[in-house]
Specification:
heterodimer; A: mainly alpha; 6 helices; B: alpha+beta; four-stranded antiparallel beta sheet; two-stranded antiparallel sheet; 6 strands; 26% strand
């Protein structure tokens, strides 16, 4: 009897479903960053707005990478429905706290998928995910450094202006 | 149908695999419905997603049936709770057998050196 499952796709149902969940998570991240960029733009934090616009684009490119991978392996990538993206934030600092939390959630989710791939001996997907895991090191580093600027510079006087100026200078060097 | 092989059978129906057309055939309620591989998974997913407990708990007569219309399939299923349970069991059993077939293909027909 033909192995119709394997002929159709190399992905197991479980991994395909997890990857589609990750597609949704990356899409939601992109939407959240876009909302953050808009808030920063409205409140005069130009550099931070630029930073978040670029973060939003990056998250979408991550989403597309996974999306394409699912289809390339014969699976069915599902275009995600994104709802409940808040466009209001408590404060400038609150935005960066939420951004860090978002990155941590993405890393945890990728780790869970990588663990599942190892368990199912899907080393192709595990290898594919290693790029994302490395990328998360940079993402979390930048998000943490952004937040630390609030401690280092302080929010009094020209503090917020200086923080906004410094945001785009942050870089991760290996 | 004579070329098709039985994947899984229960008291309510049977799922076959047709190697010639590379599709599955669902024999249920007196009809035979061809299902492509994506359609098979789509239907299985829709059946699994039905909250049977909520259906039973809901006193509204409209909650007694569930209408399932998988994509790329010319059949629409109008199912009662009992029928849902039969199909759920049928698809779950077929899924296990397909997985077993994949394992056999990998381990027996295309063994690798260890």
């Amino acid at each position: 009897m033909k192995d119709l499952l394997r002929l159709k796709t190399s992905l197991t149902e479980e991994v395909e479903s997890l990857l589609n969940e990750q597609v949704k998570m990356e899409a939601k991240s992109s939407a959240i960053y876009l909302a953050m960029a808009s808030w920063c733009d409205r409140h005069g934090f130009d550099n931070s707005a630029t930073f978040f616009y670029s973060q939003s684009d990056e998250e979408r490119s991550h989403m597309m990478k996974i999306f394409k991978y699912i289809n390339d392996l014969g699976g069915a990538a599902v275009s995600p429905e994104i709802t409940n993206v808040s466009s209001e934030f408590d404060s400038f600092r609150g935005i960066f706290e939420e951004a860090l939390q978002q990155e941590i959630s993405v890393t945890q989710s990728l780790n869970r998928i990588a663990a599942k791939c190892q368990k199912l001996q899907d080393f192709t997907t595990f290898n594919f995910l290693s790029w994302f895991l490395n990328e998360q090191v940079e993402e979390e580093y930048i998000a943490r450094r952004c937040l630390e600027l609030f401690e280092v510079i302080g929010e009094e006087g020209v503090g917020l202006y200086t923080i906004d100026k410094q945001i785009t200078q942050l870089k991760y060097e290996v | 149908m004579s070329m098709a092989k039985v994947i899984f059978k229960n008291e309510g129906g049977c799922l076959y695999q047709d190697d010639r057309k590379s599709c599955f055939i669902l024999e249920y309620g007196g009809y035979c419905t061809p299902l492509s591989v994506p359609c098979f998974f789509c239907l299985k997913k829709k059946i699994d997603e039905v909250d049977i407990v909520a259906m039973i708990a809901n006193p509204d007569p409209s909650a007694d049936i569930e209408i399932i219309s998988p994509h790329a399939c010319d059949r629409c299923f109008v199912l009662t709770v009992a029928e849902l349970l039969i199909l759920k069991d049928l698809f779950a059993g077929a899924r296990v057998m397909l997985e077993l077939n994949s394992i056999l293909q990998e381990r027996v027909y295309a063994p690798i050196a260890v």
